[in-house]
Each structure stands twice: as C-alpha cells, then as structure tokens.
Automatic annotation (TrEMBL):
<dbReference type="InterPro" id="IPR008972">
    <property type="entry name" value="Cupredoxin"/>
</dbReference>
<keyword id="KW-0732">Signal</keyword>
<dbReference type="InterPro" id="IPR039391">
    <property type="entry name" value="Phytocyanin-like"/>
</dbReference>
<feature type="signal peptide">
    <location>
        <begin position="1"/>
        <end position="24"/>
    </location>
</feature>
<comment type="similarity">
    <text>Belongs to the early nodulin-like (ENODL) family.</text>
</comment>
<dbReference type="InterPro" id="IPR003245">
    <property type="entry name" value="Phytocyanin_dom"/>
</dbReference>
<dbReference type="GO" id="GO:0009055">
    <property type="term" value="F:electron transfer activity"/>
</dbReference>
<keyword id="KW-1015">Disulfide bond</keyword>
<keyword id="KW-0325">Glycoprotein</keyword>
<comment type="function">
    <text>May act as a carbohydrate transporter.</text>
</comment>
<dbReference type="Pfam" id="PF02298">
    <property type="entry name" value="Cu_bind_like"/>
</dbReference>
<protein>
    <recommendedName>
        <fullName>Phytocyanin domain-containing protein</fullName>
    </recommendedName>
</protein>
<feature type="domain" description="Phytocyanin">
    <location>
        <begin position="25"/>
        <end position="123"/>
    </location>
</feature>
<dbReference type="GO" id="GO:0005886">
    <property type="term" value="C:plasma membrane"/>
</dbReference>
Length: 171
C-alpha cells in the first residue's frame, strides 16, 4: 500500500509539473474595456510582454465588431485586403505562435476610431538557471527547444518518482 503522505507528495509534484507545462498567458485586449472604439491599444500593448505560445483574445459585441489579422500596410491604412485571418465570435482566442510583430484591426471602419492593435511577440525566455536543462543547451538551437527539453526532463523525473512510490506497474 502507498501511504497517504507519499500520495500527497506525488500530488504536489504533479501540480508543479502541470503548472510549469502551462505557462502560456492569455492577453485580453483592452483588459476590462475589451475591443471597442476610442481606446488607445498602444498603451495597452506597451504594458505587457508577449511570448511565443501566448494567446491574444478579443472580447466584443459580435453584432458590431470583428477582428482581422493584417500586415503592416493593413494596420497603417485600416485595410483588410489580403488579410491573414478573420474572427467574428465575439470571444476570439488567437495563438501568437511565432516570434514576430502581429497586426490586428477591426474590419468595419472602426479601425479609424482606434480599433487597431499591434504586438511584438518575443521568443520564449531561457529556462531559469538551476533548471534541469540549464547545462545542455544545444549549439545554434532556439530557446523553445531548450524550454521543451526542460519540461521533458521534469516529466521524466516525476514519472520516475511515481514509479518508485507506486511500483513499476503504475505507468
Ligand atoms: C496612443 O498612445 C501612444 C503613446 O502615448 C501615442 O504615441 C499615440 O499617439 C496614441 N495614439 C492615439 C491614437 O492617440
Ligand atoms: C498596466 O498594468 C498594470 C498592472 O497590470 C495595471 O494596473 C495598469 O492599469 C496597466 N496600465 C494600462 C495603461 O493598461
Ligand atoms: C497607405 O496609405 C498611404 C497614405 O495614406 C498611401 O500612400 C499608400 O499608398 C497606402 N498603401 C496602400 C497599400 O494602400
Ligand atoms: C500587405 O498585404 C497587401 C495585400 O496582400 C500587399 O499589397 C502589401 O504589399 C503588404 N504589405 C507588407 C508591408 O507586406
Ligand atoms: C475570413 O476567413 C475565411 C477563412 O477562415 C475566409 O474564407 C473568408 O474569405 C475571410 N473573410 C474575409 C472578409 O476576408
């Protein structure tokens, strides 16, 4: 029989693992003001840091507004020609899956009233020093790979501990 305290320790490690694995942030455009005319979204964007894997989400009245992903020309000129994507649900979650600058505008003319936002997405930061992957940086490889290796190492550790606590039949 596995003791209750062993189960509790494993539970804590499991929580730690899950918490570490889901560090993506959901950036709600405009915070509690949402996606509406007359808001300076440059101020909102300047107040946070975006990383690859984060989400940007737009909350709005779907009968009135929408979201288009455009390039810099579309952003500067409020045009949706050649748009890279469009969303209309009123609660849209858009993955920021690349380290680059993203541009979003509202497609019904409200872009001219400020409904435009651009965010610069950064590569994932390196894992904190002392983490399992800290001394195994492969040369020439990007930060996300290092981060992923860290997670794999942590999972292996948790699984190994689980098999010690619960017996090898557990996995
Ligand atoms: C929004 O704020 C930024 C930073 O203060 C400013 O440069 C920009 O002109 C403002 N945009 C509008 C449309 O007021
Ligand atoms: C910037 O972020 C802080 C902390 O989240 C918040 O209190 C503040 O209102 C934000 N400022 C703007 C302009 O969004
Ligand atoms: C964008 O607007 C500028 C100035 O308003 C104009 O010179 C330019 O041709 C426009 N670009 C496109 C692609 O429409
Ligand atoms: C943006 O897309 C439009 C339409 O596809 C294109 O004409 C324009 O050159 C693009 N602008 C940039 C900066 O890539
Ligand atoms: C919106 O996106 C869909 C595909 O996701 C595309 O078929 C449609 O033409 C787009 N609408 C506009 C107005 O760009």
């Amino acid at each position: 029989m596995v003791s209750t305290s062993a189960q509790f320790i494993f539970f804590c490690l499991f929580i730690l693992f899950t918490a570490t694995a889901t560090t993506a942030t959901d950036h709600i455009v405009g915070a509690n003001k949402g996606w509406n005319p007359g808001i300076n979204y440059t101020l909102w964007a300047n107040n946070q840091t975006f990383y690859v894997g984060d989400l940007i989400s737009f909350r709005y009245q779907k009968t009135q507004y929408n979201v288009f992903q455009v390039n810099q020309t579309g952003y500067d000129n409020c045009t949706t020609e050649g748009a890279l994507g469009n969303w209309t649900s009123g609660k849209d979650f858009i993955p920021l899956n690349e380290a680059k600058r993203f541009y979003f505008i509202c497609g019904n003319g409200q872009c001219f009233n400020g409904m435009k936002v651009t965010v610069l997405v950064h590569p994932l930061p390196p894992p904190p020093s002392g983490s399992i992957a800290a001394n195994s940086t492969p040369s020439g490889s990007a930060a996300p790979v290092v981060f992923h290796k860290g997670l794999v190492g942590l999972r292996a550790f948790v699984l190994a501990l689980a098999s010690i606590l619960f017996g090898s039949g557990w996995i």
